[in-house]
Amino acid sequence: MNKAPIKGFSKLSKEAKIEWLISNYAEQPEASLEVLKSYLHADEKVQKLHDEFIENTISNFYMPFGVAPNFLINDKMYALPLAIEESSVVAAAAKAANFWMDRGGFKAKVISTTKVGHVHFIWNGNNKTDLKAVFDACKPDFFANTQNITANMRSRGGGILDIELVDKTALEPGYFQLQATFETCHSMGANFINSCLEAFAATWRQAIENNSTLEPADRSVQIIMSILSNYTPECLVRAEVSCKVDEINEGSGIENAEFAEKFVRAIRIAEIEPYRAVTHNKGIMNGVDSVVIATGNDFRAIEACAHAFAGRSGQYASLTHATVENGIFRFWIDIPLALGTVGGITKLHPIVKFAHEILAHPSAEELMQIIAVAGLAQNFSAVRSLITSGIQKGHMKMHLLNILNQLEATEEEKAIIVNYFKDHVVSHSEAVRVFTELRGIPSKVGGK
Ligand code: MEV
Fold first, then answer.
1. Which residues are paired to 320 by β-bridges?
2. What predicted TM-score, i.e. pTM, was given to this entire model?
3. Mean pLDDT for the stretch of residues 152-163
4. Mind listing the domains of the chain with CATH numbers?
């Protein structure tokens, strides 16, 4: 049976929301109530911040906050903050950091920082030259009518870079755009860009409706929407590592030259085979998203953009590339990252604030470099495992504690079982077998 709908839920107090939810949806009301309560922050001021981040907050959703030290980036040492639930990600980051610290570290540079947004509109007039003339005459007004919105950004060296009229009628009858480019300095700039675009739309409507040079029938425009684009291929950063093939010496017993050759081939496969490219890039995003989330940035925007960029040739492909030339192994990533170090929750969320603090309050450009490195490092560790020991060895070792926690093993049992698996291959069923043997009871938890 469907549950009865509720009206005015957002107006209820937090307690009333919880009570309604628990009594309608919880399987074990008392236990669920306890869980929700136990995840509330002890400091009321912090909890209020969380309550006000979104609507209908009833508790908090915790994720582990980890750190991967020893990241040498452009000769500066960083400890990277990572918010992630996946067992092996922080360990993989830390391992890659140590590996490359001994080989000169990571080099990173910002290639461009331009953001973009559009007023999407329909104009069904006949003479496109007339429309272009209206646009050219109106262009200074777009800047003039947004002076208030752009004042702060301009004082920081940013603002509106350019506005163009784009004819999209080949794709859809009557469809045109005002395409604007922006420099948003240390902020991700979504609110700034959207405010400018909405002002452009109002200016544009007036310009067309009041224009006496257009035929009367053409003096009408339908504004469909004004919105930034999260596709920012011109907000691009490159991170790379390189060393002599002779110095790779990565410790798994495989010869240096063979390691380098296999590595380059693995990257090549991700460049040409979308099935592999998606998993490959997912691994990159393990590193990217962890730091994006820890620093209070919008991981949905970052994800959407990275994958669109990965498919920009028409085929989805790897974000990283590798070569061996003249005895030098080189591995790099090009990734668009529209990030902010001011605005959003960057100065509100206590852990996000701390993440910025341990990164020594980076600029948006510095953060772009750090996060590109996090993605490259993660990819290096994943591919290194894949072409040597295989991924499961390290992954399952890290996952072992999750399995034991699911089995409700005691600390003492965990210590014994972790010790046992130091020289045995971990699998879910093996972990269950060893656990049940240790306890001498049949397990309730099935294998996966
Ligand atoms: C797992 O989260 C990520 C990997 O699958 C990435 C890859 O295959 O490169 C290990």
1. 333
2. 0.92
3. 97
4. 9-44 (no CATH), 65-105+240-389 (3.90.770.10), 115-228 (3.30.70.420), 394-447 (no CATH)
